[in-house]
Design brief:
Blueprint: E1 3-8, H1 21-29, E2 35-42, E3 63-67, H2 73-80, H3 98-109, H4 120-133, E4 138-143, H5 149-159, E5 162-167, H6 184-200, E6 203-206, H7 209-216, E7 224-225, H8 232-236, E8 248-253, H9 263-274, E9 280-285, H10 291-298, E10 305-308, H11 313-321, E11 325-329, H12 343-350, E12 354-357, H13 363-370, E13 374-377, H14 382-394, H15 412-427
Length: 429
Amino acid sequence: MKTKVLIATYYWPPSGGAGVQRYLKFAKYLPRFDIEPVILTVKNPTYPIQDLTLEKELTDPVQVFKTKTLEPFGIYAGLAGKKPDTIKPTTELEGDNLISKAGSWIRANLFIPDARVGWLLTARRKAEELIRSLDIRTVITTGPPHSVHFIGKYVQKRTGVRWFADFRDPWSDIYYNQILPRTKLTEQIDKKLEKSVLRSADEMIVVTHSQAEQLRQVEERAYHVITNGFDPDDFRQINQEPPHPPPFLIRHTGSIGEASIPAGFLKAIQQLTADKKTEVMVEFIGHVHRKLPETVRQLGLEQIVSFRNYLPHLEALNEMVRAHILLLCLPDVPDIRHHIPGKLFEYFGSGTPILLLGPEDGDAARIVRDQQAGVICPFRDVEKIKSGIETLINRLPAPGQKRADRHHPYSRLRLTESLAKMIHNQQEL
């Protein structure tokens, strides 16, 4: 008889993007450790990215239960003349017009901790029902959106279930809160809500050691670090051969927000290609802030830099493998040293060299150095970025001499084993 665990997550297929990957992969591998995941998610979500291919990800059948939510993004989209699925709920609402600015203020100050809080109306009752009917003794809530954690807090109090709160990203200290027009009162309420979760959860899971240290300043307690990772099975399904130079292809996959627009990198590319001695092409795959194409035009790089829309997950991984260099841009904001984007680990899985733009003393930089996976350059340092690109070009691996396997420290199988040990240990108490 397998141990059942309830996982409450807003992001679940057909959601695409980074937020869905962590618990989709945990759900895939938990059955190997005699744990049966039961999923509670949203019936009528507003996902900024959809990926229908992820619905085929799970090899074992998983019970998925859905309840309705009430969200403000449909109203905002109608006022702005947009479709709800084009709105990016977790960060800034793009645009300089009055509706965009008002929408950003409302999103930042009237929906605390986030605009997904309307899901609690139905999700808490359904979670309690599932815990009682399926004899579930452990529930995991994963955020962002961090409002999901109040499902765990509710059922813990009502049923005595063990509750694990998983922070995929920081809460009150998340970098985009520096961009949103938040009031002091909003910040105080948000920190109070965060502290209530940190105090109440039976176990806290975070994705980096520095995130744990940061949270200890808020609430002194034990924090378990289970990083994000990559699934070696994904890379077995794709083309292993990279393109042959020249030109050298630098790719970025995933979203680029306003704080991540790599102007210094683009200036470095402009200088490197000016004398035509270095043949480089750059491609961005996924949603990008409108100011990025504007910057490309201003620098006269239209023939060198191209853009493609979001690709399904496996197709995006294939493009990672087929690049010569993968670009990773951390947001250029203060206090970003702790931030490790989830896609960094899939970059590791591809085996393609990485050009990381961000703090040289940050967590992401440390991991890249530890894995000998690429070069780190300060976000705005054009000369160092130029040198970094040249260094990577000069030491590109030969075709077929890369790839990571399930024994890698950041493989999803090994990371799931850590989570499974936590669940089984708690069941034995």
